[in-house]
Amino acid sequence: MAGDEVEYPTEYMNSLANTRQTTWAEDSTEGVRRIRDALADRSTFGDLPELAAYGTVFEEVRTIYLETLRGVKDDLDAVAQGIRTSAQQMRDRDDQAGAAFLELWQRWENGPLASTRNHEQASSTQSAQAAAQTAESAEAATSATAAAPAVPAEPAERGTPADGATGGTRAEGAVPAGGPASDVPSPR
User: Fold this and answer.
1) 83, exposed or middle or buried, with CB in 10 Å at 0-12, 13-18, 19+?
2) pTM (two decimals)
3) Contact at 8 Å (CB) between 90 and 12?
4) What digits encode the pLDDT tens for the residues 63-82?
C-alpha cells in the first residue's frame, strides 16, 4: 500500500462519520443495556452447586462481554473522530492549495512579474540606452545600404579564389545584414 493514494470526498467522509457513529453508538448502547439489564443473574440459576457454578460463569462472561462492548464503542468513536479529522485535514490542505493558486493568479494578473520588472530595470540603464541607440544606428545604416543599388566591383578589385578572396561585393565599412545575431532584439 506504500505510495497508493486513497481519495474520498470530504462531505461523504463527514456523513459517514456522523451517521455511522450515531448508528454505532445506538447499537452498542442497546447491546450493553440488553446484556446489563438481562433478567438473568447468578441467583437466577438456583442453589444447586452445578447451577450456581454456571451462574458464576454467566456473571463473568457477561462482565467480559460488557467491557468488550464498551471498548468497541470507544473504538468506533475513535474511528468516527479519525474520519472527521481526516476530512478536515483534507479540506484544510485544499484551502491552502487554493490560497497558493489564488496568490499565484493575483501575482500573474496584477503584476508586476519579476521578469517584467527586471527587464524594465535592466533596459533603463545608461549603458542599455546607449546600446539601443547603437543598434538603431546600425539598423538604419543597414537599411540604407540595402536600399542603395549594388555596384559590382571590378573583377580585379574582388580578387580571385587563388588570392584568398571570397568574391564578395560588400563595400568597405558597410554593416553586414543578417547573420546569426540578426534575430536578437535590440534593448529599448
Assistant:
1) buried
2) 0.45
3) no
4) 898 898 889 889 888 888 88
